[in-house]
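SEVERITY: medium
COMPONENT: batch folding queue
REPORTER: lab tech (J.R.)

DESCRIPTION
The queue accepted two submissions in a row. Attaching both inputs and their returned structure tokens so the on-call engineer can compare them side by side.

ATTACHMENT 1
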Amino acid sequence: MSEQSEEASLAVRISVVMPTYDQDTFLAGATSSLLAQTEANWELIVVDDGSPGDTKMALGEALYDARVRIEVFDRNRGLGAALNRGLDCARGEYIAYLPSDDLYHGDHLASLVAALDAAPEAILAVAGVRHHHSETSPGRIEGEPLQLVQVAHRRTEQRWTERSELTTDDLDHMLWTRLVGRGSVVETARVTCQWGWHPRQRHKALREPWGGLNTYRARYRVQEPLRLQSTAGHLHDEVEHYRRFRERPSTPPVPDGLRVLVVGELAHNPERILLLEERGHELHGLWTDSPHWFNTVGPLPFGHVADVPLDDWRDAVSRLRPDVIYALLNWQTIPLAHEVLTAALGVPFVWHFKEGPFFAREQGLWSQLVDLHTLSDGVVYSSPELREWFAATVPSSAHCPSLVIDGDLPKAEWLSGQRSALLSRGDGAVHTVIPGRPMGPEPEEIAALARANVHVHLYSGKAVAQMRSWVTQVQQLAPDHFHLHPQVDQTDWVAEFSQYDAGWLHSFRSDNHGDPYAATWDDLNYPARMGTLAAAGVPMIQRDNTGSTVATQTLARARHLGVFWRDPDDLVAQLRDRDQMAALRQSVWSQRGDFTFDAHVDRLVDFLRVLVPRRSGTGLV
């Protein structure tokens, strides 16, 4: 055999790139499925993307196969970077992918190689795939991008989109679309691989409601601000959105400043916490490691809060010696808050709670939540009604010092900008807005409003993906009066939402009849969109629940903030009363500062100050 032919016989036919992060228990199965391939002329490039486990140990005997090599990142850099490292190392004519939680069937590589060999014009080959445990698809799974495990393509200089540009589960955007623009696609039409299905998949960490921005940040220990857009949501551009805060110099401490340890998560409008730092207090954060999509956790993209390591938090807090612990906000942080509360740290502990006691019961966290309301040195409630509910259902909580401040109010500096002209002045119709995921009204009610020439504008990139049935039904019933718009960040709240005659709060019927034991979370809650609408001076629409205790109803009636409707005809009549709506609009605009955290932060600081010497006996540090 000539040297040239011997070299050709040793050439790698197909390079398999395996990105892995915190999936040690899956690795052996994935590599075993590769070792069992009928096509043996392959190489495997495992890219350990800063995994907290021991990837080499998990690979076991496979690591000693001459065809296997491993690349290790010192920290997680994201899927795009891991795949690109694999491509940079690849020697094969073709590239295939085997995420460490997926599996190949025995002839998977052979069928993809054969498909590409038979179609010189093809850039990419697609295999059929088993998914969702037992379902199969001969090609692309409906509603999903092509999955890594089912694709092989010719070696190319094209590279995957990396985290510094965009974080997404849209693999088409990350690479496939660019590849397909350079050649045709051939399908094997045979199911020869399996896309894993389990809670810790990357796309589930990215997509709401399984995951989201903050779930992804916590899962992958991301240190930097993100630009993230999943296939089920709008673009979150933390890089630009929080630049103003991140680039500000730290505030010099005031002589009597508090060292505050924030425990848990910050939910919506998280940058509000900076108001404490801007008043000269020192902020540290101990964050839950299992937030939901709307629960903001550190490292915070706006900076000025020093993180405390979760894995050795007791020693870190002992060294830190905070003056007070401020634990918040939603039910997902109850386990961590309770752990800190009961650790006997000798530090005053304040619990600020918003969502929600009923969810805590469902999740088996009720006993811990009771402790947080009865053993804390102080409790902050998000509404007076929530405080009254706890006083009724947990009577001993009524003896704890308490305060009422809504939990996720925005920062006042987002209230900048001029109001826009009303759309109704241009066309004579009435235009209403839903800022965020629709929580009512019903499709039939929107249809009735449409017949009266009342428009509904929905600002939510998520609703189309997450509430497709509701959106489709409304589009069918009110095609000319229902309008979809992308999500609007705080910088544009005033200019965008002020053009509407009124905005929808959560739309629900209450039947508690003033009995606290019959109240629901809808009855007790101030939804975050209340602050959004107030910022733009938009009157608030809610059902008339006269006779029941409803937090938003009590507040809106007392402050003259909105309209209360019994049926669509009643609502139309009120919305067309120009004098009434003009008076409401001016009333909301004049009070919008009260719906910011700035209006309440000094009360919170005073509350914290009172508790510090009360328990420590040493005064302020």
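ATTACHMENT 2
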Amino acid sequence: MNSTLEKSFGILDEKSKKTVRKALKVLGKKNLAFIMHSGSFPSAAGQNTGFGSAFSDGGHEFIEYLSGLFDAVQLGPAGKTKSCDSSPYTGTIFSGNPLFIDLKELTTSKWGKILSNTTFEEIVQNNPNKNSNKTSYSYVYKKYEEALQEAWENFKSNADKKSEKEFEIFKRENSFWLDKDALYEALSIEHGNDYWPLWNSETDKNLFNPQSIEQKMEFAKRIEEIENKYSDEIDKYKFIQFIISSQSEDTRKFAKKHDIKMIADRQVAFSDRDTWAYQSLFLDGWMLGCPPDYFSKDGQAWGFPVMNPDRMYNSDGSLDEGGQLLKNLYKKMFRENPGGVRIDHIVGLIDPWVYKAGKKPKIEEGAGRLYSSPEHPELSKFAIAKLEDLDETVTADKEKRVKTLTKEQIKAYGRLIEKIVIAAAEEEGLDKDAIVCEDLGTLTNPVASVMNQFGLQGMKLTQFVEADKPDDPYRCRNITKKCWAMVGTHDNEPIKMWADKNIHTHVGYLHAKNLVDDLFTESENKDDIIVKLTEDAEFLAQTKLVELFASNAENIQIFFTDYFNIYDVYNRPGTSGDANWSLRLPDNYKELRPINLANILKLAILARGKEFADKNQKIIEKLDEII
């Protein structure tokens, strides 16, 4: 075994990293991305406040750890979350999450020491999870508010002219979203809670949704009144966003210096703050959700608003206010994340499943696909598919219900993708390959047609293989070249846990048989391998990773629990509370034993067959030196 590995397990020397990169190239891999949400980043020694951040010293150290081996880090959504909900997928679309701020940096001269060392050290010392790999969400939410209040007070009294000027420029350049978000903060103070439906003023609930010219004038006066009354709180909110923006930019530059690209994550949801600010652009009485699937037999009632199709485009095809809002969002994301943007639930942009507010997302309660329901009494006016395009022998939630589409219809379904997402990427100097489409689960014909039309890359999750279906798209031999493949996402159990549950089962046997058929085609002892796969969880988990790299997929993603063999779950869909979304990479991650990537790549090369292996014998020998 390589001495470097013996001492530090997962830390490869530069020579070994180059060998691994050559093996990836041999296997046709263009990108190897590490998936970890910012809150899960480890902390540097003595800096564990209770929440991770890519902006922190610990975050930068981990980026250095990945450098030379991985091409990118895919982060989670970066929006501001609520005190009562730690899910990053309900965060704001523009405002950044204050919990990602590196408080330690605020104690340095770079920020004029606007935060005292005493305050910072108290937060670290009192972190209830300082000795575990869990975030302390409720704790840090309160403590960060207190610390940032101190930082704001000190900035106001001690800021130099250069910092003041930069802050003013930031406020001016970002006013199109920052003013509304900051005003919401002021109104939350005014009403004693940050959930606007509970506010006791109908005026304040609808400040950006006037129904007449008179109301518009009345609301404008109210906005001015709140801005004057809470001017300090509003400026504090903007200052916090200024810090986030500055630290985010520094981290991007740091990552670029280490040849690591940052990939953002755009959730399909809109936060309460966004819903209030842009409610005039949403479809009244409808919510976005998901029909029955792998995670929920009854469907998922997300409760997120749905963009009103009538507010997306003007009659001449140009973008209306809703369309421009989304384009501004994607432009900001592509500008800040040159590695690209992962779009969570691409179906929600192309062929969304909607349900009536207050109801369940079931067909019998009025739910349907917004653009694929020509038979629906209320949704038919938005339908792109026509009655004759439907296979009415299957229900509205099924993938193949829309059986035929013309080129014009596909273009209509893909209008948002073309005019907003792709256009935003191109305007920021990127191409469509910078768009990573989460298309797991239900993939309707309209969505598949649009993705094919524009050459968008979706995802293939090998843990989702339905082993009794030979043509399953997530199976190794069926995985296409132009995609992002992985064994699991943040919603899945780590592959080792999956393997433990599948050994000694009939389903496990089916998986084993498929893996042998795909990866051990030239082996003479196939039956023995099948038996081992059905009895040995370690071998099964490793073989699932080999399957990933042996596939034709050009882009590979690995979630941090899979890479570091962490036997825990980051998110359990449908659950909430501090225990969820709380898993972190331990601060002592360099002492952990990650997957043996060199061995997995060697096995992936061998799985391609003797001819392929003979051709790449030299790289196999070099991998053996690492193993």
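NOTES FROM REPORTER
The CA atoms of residues 330 and 421 lie 6 Å apart.
No errors were logged for either attachment.
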